[in-house]
Amino acid sequence: MSDQAQVNGERLLKRLDDFAAIGATPAGGVNRQALSVEDREARRLLAELALARGFQVFQDPIANLFIRRGGRGDGPPFLIGSHLDSQPTGGRFDGALGTLAAFEVLESLEDAGIETEMPLEVVAWTNEEGSRFSPGCMGSMAFSLKAIPAEWNDLRGSTGGIFSDELHATLEALPEARMRPMGFPITGYLELHIEQGPSLERENIPVGIVYGIQGTRWLEITIIGQASHAGTTALSFRRDPMTAAATALKTLFDTVMPQDELARFTVGRFAVEPGSVNAIPASVTFTVDLRHPDAGSLDMLEALIVKTCANAADSAGCDARSRRFFEMSPASFPDALLACLDRAAKEQTLATKRMLSGAFHDALFVSHVAPAAMIFVPCRDGLSHNEAEYVEPAHSIAGARMLMASTLQAVSSLGPE
Amino acid sequence: MSDQAQVNGERLLKRLDDFAAIGATPAGGVNRQALSVEDREARRLLAELALARGFQVFQDPIANLFIRRGGRGDGPPFLIGSHLDSQPTGGRFDGALGTLAAFEVLESLEDAGIETEMPLEVVAWTNEEGSRFSPGCMGSMAFSLKAIPAEWNDLRGSTGGIFSDELHATLEALPEARMRPMGFPITGYLELHIEQGPSLERENIPVGIVYGIQGTRWLEITIIGQASHAGTTALSFRRDPMTAAATALKTLFDTVMPQDELARFTVGRFAVEPGSVNAIPASVTFTVDLRHPDAGSLDMLEALIVKTCANAADSAGCDARSRRFFEMSPASFPDALLACLDRAAKEQTLATKRMLSGAFHDALFVSHVAPAAMIFVPCRDGLSHNEAEYVEPAHSIAGARMLMASTLQAVSSLGPE
């Protein structure tokens, strides 16, 4: 069946250009944050393109946008897509490639007159990036929860605006889209995305088959000592939390990642109180972003981090406090769906590699309610969340081919046939 | 001569209370920052007390306040004093004790009808603290330079106000004070101050004879790596400036102070860019406050710090940049003046200890233009720049006795007799 359909590479590249113009930045990137005027403009363009092709357009209460191409049957649809929102200084491909390649799949099937048994839908999830309103992946999270968490309503955007107001305005801006309930049944989900890391490019492999997403924990560690005069306080009188932090971090940087190549340990924030050049700090606070594909390893590493900080604090006459303020369990995508991706790659003669996603994606949340998997394509220098983000045209097109072939494999494998 | 004069301890304690009421904070401290309305009020009170005793009152172009009691001769005066400005959450004694004890010396001599050969003047230096307008010690610095550095004029205060405007308003607020040129000749300078460290209290010694002030260098170290995604970037692809900083600081905390008991090494500020929980930092910047009584050791330690940071940066694939943004050379007070202090302590049967000042003081700047020395008294728990700062009444009075005896020793030793 799939050898009859061909993605239209030129059309896909033109669509990428057209959408990159919405929120374009002078440096060649995109600023199209969630629920912004630019985000609404991108949604409108996608809806207009869809209606022009005779597809149906829906949105749900959190403004997830769905483009439906009906099937022979009327069962739950198979979803393909990604997101249209960007970071404030984001790139042209993060999210947009997966959404527009999915739309290209629908158009290509339409062009070739290929019917599928089950309905196929493109989805553009709301606020994947989380840069304007935190957390990210709100659309897919609410979809999997079948509800919008009440605490999101009053969130203030980093660029102004209240979440519930901006959501309402976004929904209103697309009256052509019919409303749907939150979290309707689906057969499965596939998402094409840029890797946001360097490994496919370095190994010169066009397609990554993502078998899971590593788990994440965010910790905040505070070490409390005693503020004192930098000039008058001799070493034996110091209770310096900076000394404790340096000791703990040196130990952790030397052990966590070097001893476990699947672990990721990052300290991205570090604050000092009172922050005077000539004062021994009263306290230091830093964050830890810890990731691992194995939940047991996350437990073990978190315990190691907490203990190492406590020991270092103790040795410096300080106290350490730790709290976990965010957690996402690791996800494994199902073998049956991954097998469809393997067959698709073979059929399209695309070299692949099985890989783990280091970043979270909407697919992580969708995987809680349906079979889900992801396809990665290389991006230059692994660069993402950056205006210089770039994907080779050939890689964008190969990704769309892989997405179409995988989708057709999946709908025939998961369907009633 | 000096056995005829007695300081009036009760009067001194009352003056300390009266001045502590100006800018008093609810927690029992003082907020009387330089050139503020409260600072002007304290200057006015001191000037009124002085005029009531028949002393003359002067100010110079940077609003250093001088209270003059004439001598038999008309040569350059001998100065005693400190400062009246405080930190925003400062204590009742830092600066005020030295200024009011100096005024008590003048009053006691007046009460006892003791004439000195050379004129004696109390000084309250402008902006010692540097908390509202930086740098600190502006008054004594300008006095020793015989000029106000032009770049100070446009400084903005941390609580509002432009330096030149606030200086002008402060001068205008005390029209009774006659104007004097900047940096007139003086015979010498003595300053009583609280230790701001714990050693006198721990050793139960009422008086410290300060033989010098350690040198200070402030360095800013920036380590530049590459921002990257915390989840997708494997260890071998990381150029993490936080790793480099932890390594460098661990090494420096383990060597600088442990290997040289006179060295002081403090990291009081630490900033991360971009400061996202889930981003490997692009750069980290921290400050180093380095102190040592020996200039050669400062050179050696600064070189060690710069090299250690450069090596750690290099090992992490990062670059390090260092700049020195403040420097104060060590000061040694002259033996002849210190001998006067020794004699005074013996005469007053006060136990003393020779010590180095870890903090800078106005005496450091005055020592560039005249013989200067300092007297320390204990403060509770070594606490200072804190509303809980406290000096035992007996220690305040002992400090004033020591100041008077030392002053009389100095004026007879340095004078023409």
Per CATH, the architecture of the largest domain in chain A is 3-Layer(aba) Sandwich
- The averaged pLDDT of chain A comes out at 95
- Biggest interface pair, counts: A-B, 56 and 56 residues
Number of helical segments with 4 or more residues of chain A: 11
Number of domains of chain A: 2
Describe this structure in words.
The structure is a homodimer of 417-residue chains. Chain A is of the alpha/beta class. Chain A has two domains: 2-213 and 330-414, Zn peptidases (Aminopeptidase); 215-328, Alpha-Beta Plaits (2-Layer Sandwich). The first copy, chain A, is built from eleven helices and 17 strands. In chain A, strands 1, 2, 3, 4, 5, 6, 7, 15, 16 and 17 form a ten-stranded mixed sheet that branches. In chain A, strands 8, 10, 11, 13 and 14 form a five-stranded antiparallel sheet that branches. The first copy, chain A, has a two-stranded antiparallel sheet with strand order 9-12. In chain A, β3, α3 (96-112) and β4 form a beta-alpha-beta unit. In chain A, α1 runs antiparallel to α3. Chain A is elongated. The mean pLDDT of chain A is 95. The interface between A and B is large, with 56 and 56 residues.
